[in-house]
Amino acid sequence: MGNNIGWINRISKIGKKIKKVKLSKPALNREEKRQHKLDAILRHGAAAFMAKGYYKTSLDDIALLHNVTKPTLYYYIKNKEDILIKCEHVASMRINGLLDNVTATDENAYHQLQNFIRGYVEIVTDDIIRCHIRHRGQREDPIARASSLKMHREIEHRVREIIGRGIEDGSIRSCNSTIITILLFDALNGISAWYRDEGELTREDLVTQILLIVTGGIKNKI
Fold first, then answer.
1. pTM score, whole prediction
2. What is the longest distance spanned by two Cα atoms in the chain?
3. SS3 at position 219
4. pLDDT tens across 144-202, in order?
């Protein structure tokens, strides 16, 4: 019991940082309200998974954090694994949306890659995305596992395309786009494990250092 109180108190500190969304005027419609509540459940679930571990966290724990009964959770999620699936959906929407935006510009591919990295750092420091990255391999449903793998491969393919276009337009030096993409995501996803907003390192400084090391090495100096 003592251990449970300890981790709940730790997560409560995280929960205080979750911004409360004020109802706009006109008031949110039914679907918007449902989405707002689902987002809060995902954030509490993500915080619990990261603090206690996916397998050691129960829906009862999440219901307690969210201050609702366990049956209420079933209005928004099917089971515990569904939280991971929905976190992944949020990640897919945000990352693909970022890629849509950066590739829609007239900038050369090198600058598009830089803009992707800036946006991706912002994404992976969000609790929902951080949870997705840490627990994405813990799929029990084979269909969900295959879908997850497909989603990640498609995102990596889009980044490889940017690098390939950079080699063609001369903004990126000749390199193996597959290796660079793998190294890039390993570096960026690793941020989710150690970076915290309350630390001394700001996101701006973090992005600057990453761009200096990662993209600086592939920029065509000619």
1. 0.81
2. 64
3. strand
4. 888 888 999 999 999 999 999 999 999 999 999 999 999 999 999 998 888 887 888 88
Do 126 and 102 lie in a common domain?
A: yes
Nearest partner of 196 among 55, 10, 4, judged by Cα: 10
Tens-digit pLDDT profile for residues 98-150: 999 999 999 999 999 999 999 999 999 888 999 899 887 677 778 888 888 89
Three-state DSSP class for residue 68:
coil
Question: Which tokens sit at 154?
Answer: 């498609």
Pairwise CA distance, residues 21 & 13, whole Å: 18
Q: Domains in the chain: how many in total?
A: 2
Q: Are 122 and 191 in contact (CB under 8 A)?
A: no
Q: Report which DSSP code applies to 111.
A: H
Assigned domain for 79 exists: no
